[in-house]
Amino acid sequence: MALLGSLVFAMSPVHAQDASSTTDAKPKPDEKAKNLDGIVVTARSGVEQRTKAETSYSITTIDEDRLRMQAPTSVTEAMKSVPGFWVEASGGEASGNIRARGIPVDGFGSVNLLEDGIPVQHDPALGYLNADQAFRLDETIERVEVVRGGPSTIFYSNAPAGAINFIPRQVGETASGVAKFTVGDYGLTRGDFWYGTPLKGGWKISAGGFYRTDTGIREPGFNANDGGQIRLNIGKDFQGGSFDFDVKHMDDKVALYLGIPMRTYPNGDIKAVPGFDGNYGTIAGPETEHVQMKMANGGLYNFDNADGTHVKRDQLTLKFNLDLGDGWKLAESMRYDDTHTQRNGVFPNTLQSATAFLAANQKYLPAGAAGLQLRYVDSGKVYNTANQNGNGLVVVAGLRGVTMPLKEFINDTRVMRQFDFGGTHDVTMGYYYARFDQKFSRYSSSALTDVRDNALLLDLVAVDAAGNPLSKLTDNGIYRYGYEWENASGRSTTNAFYLSDEWQVTPELRIDGGARWEQVNTRGHTEQKQQVNQGTLATSQMWTGTGVFVPWDHTFNKLGWTLGANWQFSDRQGLFGRWTSAFRLPNLSSYITSPAATPIIQTMKLGEIGYKYTDRQFDIYATAFYTKYNNVGFSNAVFNAQGNSSTVQQGYADTKTTGLEFEGSWFPVNWFDVQVTATIQDPKYKGLRYTEAVAGAPVLRNYEDNQLIRVPKQSYRVVPGVNLLDGRLRLQVSYEYEGQRYVDTANSVKLPSYDVWNASARYDISQMCSLFFYVDNITNSLGLTEGNPRAGELQSADAGANTFIARPILGRAYRAAIMYRF
Questions:
Q1: Architecture of domain 20-821
Q2: How far apart are the C-alpha atoms of 194 and 175, rounded to whole Å?
Q3: What is the rounded distance in angstroms from the CA atom of residue 507 to the CA atom of residue 569?
Q4: How many whole angstroms separate alpha carbon 307 and alpha carbon 21?
Q5: Where does the record place it (predicted)?
Q6: Domain ranges (residues) in the chain
Q7: How large is the average pLDDT for residues 507-515?
Q8: Which residues contact 359 (CB under 8 A, 6 or more apart)?
C-alpha cells in the first residue's frame, strides 16, 4: 500500500540531493505533466520508496513553484487547491477551519497537521488551540503533501480524514539559499530567508525563518499581525543512516477576525449593514484594544486585543535512521514543544436594534429614573436610536481572553524490513507515544458597542424625564463582567501500536493493509464555579471559582484498520481502491471545562475508488469517495445577554457523504496551462435528533438528511496560466466557486454560494532574482463562510432575521515581493 508515515528511511530532512532543485523550482517544459512521478513521503512507511503513481489513496502535492504563485497567507489558505476540502480562512492567519470529505468538524478536528512528517500538535483540535495556531508557512518549507482519508489514520493519531504534511527544504551538495522581501497595501512588511550548506564530514546545516508586521486587511486600528519565527537545522549522513536535529522558536501575534453585521436587502443581496464596510471593517478597535476587566476576587484581568492570538513556541525535533543489518531499518522521530498561547478576541455575541436593547433592559431602571439612554463612553454624546451610524444597531460584544500553556512530547519508532514470499512484502512495525500537559483558563466580559468600523463603546445610562443623566448602569462600556470563567488543567497520555504491509503481488498489482491500536488516558481537575453579585448591573452576575476542584480520569482505546490495492496497468495510468475503518478518541478538551461530560469514541468508515492518468499534456486524478462518520459530537455555547451566560447545546449524530473529487492539469502548449480541482458531494446528517425545552415543554428536533453545516455540495477551482518571454514571465488567475451552505444543522440560515477571483504574476529578472505580484479577491466578493456560532449551530437564533452576524472573506488586497536565490 502506499502507506508512508511521518518518516521514511530514505527521506531524512538532510538527505543528499541536487542543490539546484531547492533554488529553482520552475519545472522544465518536458517535465510539466509528470506529477505522478514524485516520491510520496506521507501516510506510508517502508524500506522502498513509492511514487504518487504507485499510491493506493488520494494525495495532492503542492510543489514550491505552485506554492509561490498561490502565495497563501495561512495554512488553511494553502489548502484551497485540495479537492475534498472545504477551507475557511476568513478568520485570519491562524484559527482556520477545514472540513474534509463532508465531515462537519471544526478547526483541524478531522485532519492532522504535520511538519516534516511529525504532528505539529498530537491533537490538532484542542478547543481554542488548533494546530495551525502553532505553525507558520515560510520559505523554510519546500512543498506540501496532502492525503485525504486512506491510511492516515494508521500512521497518525487524530487523522481520520487525512494528513497535511509541510516538508522543509533540504540541504544539497552545495551551499544555496533564498531571501525574499514582501510588502502589501495593508501595511505589510515581511522578510523571509533560508540558507543551507554542507560541511565537512557529512554534516549539513541550514537556518531560516521570517518576520513580518501589518495592520491587517480588516484593520483594527493597531497592528493586527506582528512577529515571526526562526529555525536552525543540523544533520549528518553517515554509513548506514542519518541524523537530524531541528530547533525552532516562534513568537507571533495574529489577529482573530470574527463576524460582522450583515443584512439581507429586498433584492436578495446580502451586504454589510449601512455604516459598516463589509470588505475591510471589524467591530474590534482602539476602544476595545485594552480593557481592565474586574474580577469577583477583586483583581483585574488585563484584556489586550492587540495580542490577538499570541503564540510563543519553542520546538525541538530529533530524527535518525539506522541500518540494523540483515535488511532491517530503524526510523526514529521525536518532538518536544513548549507552547504558550494567549487568545484574545472581540466576539460579536448578539446584534439588535438599540430600541429593542433599551426595551429589554427597562427592568434594570433604578428608582427615580424616567428612562434609559445609550451614550458614548468617550464623549458622553447621546446615541441616536433611530439611525445612529445609518443603522441604529448595537452589539453586545464578548471580550474573551483564553490562556493555554502546553508542553508536549511525541515519539514515533518504526522498524521496517522487506520479505520475499508470494511476491515482496514491505513491512513496518511501529510504536507511537505522546504526552502533553495543558492548562486552560478563560475570562470574558460583555461590552456594549455601536455598529461601525472599529466600534465605539456605549454606556447604558438612567435619565430623568428631561433626559438628563442620573447614573450609569454599565462601567465604561462594560455591560456584564465575567460571563465566562474557567480554570482547569490536565494531562493526556497516548500509546499506539501499528503494523503495515505493502504486498507487491505482481509488477502491476500491489495490495496493502495496516492496523492501529491506540489508547488514550486523560486526567486532570477542573475548578467548580459560582456566580457572584457585587451590587451593580455590570458586577451582578460574575462567574468565579469556588476553590473546589473536580478530578477526572478516563481511558479509551480503539482498533482501526485499512485495506487497499493499486493496479498500475500501464506506465501512464492506474486504478486504486481502499476501505478504512477509522476512529477518533476523546481528547483533553472533552473534559477540561466539563468534568461531568461523557464523550464517546467517534468512528468512521471511509471508502474510495480512484483513477489516475499522466502524459506529456495531462495529469488527471479522479476519486469517488464514501464517508460514514458515527458519533459526531456537536457542542456550542449560545450566548444569553440577559442571563449573562453561555448555554451549551450538545448532541451526537452520524453523517454520510458520497462524492467525487477531481484534480487535473492540462499543458497543451509550453506557453499555456490550466489546473482544475473540483468536488461534488452529497453531505447529510443521519440520526440527528434531540429534544430541547421550549416554554417548559419538550420539543423534538429532527434534522435527518439535512445538509452538513458549512459544507457545500459543489465547489471548484480553476487556475489558467500563461508563460511568456521564454518562461521568464508567468501570469495566472484563479477562480474559486463555493456552493450554498448552511449556518446550522437545522438548515434554517442559508449561506449563499459565492465566487472569488485572484491573480498572480512572476517575472524573472535573472536566473537568481524574481519579482512577484498578487491581487487577492479582485472583485471584493463578500462570500460568507460562517454565520454567528454564538447564535447556535444546532438551530440558529438568527433564523428568519434580515440583520445578523456573519463572517465574509477578506477584502481585496495587493502584495508584491522580490526574491533572490543563491
A1: Beta Barrel (2.40)
A2: 11
A3: 9
A4: 39
A5: Cell outer membrane
A6: 20-821
A7: 95
A8: none
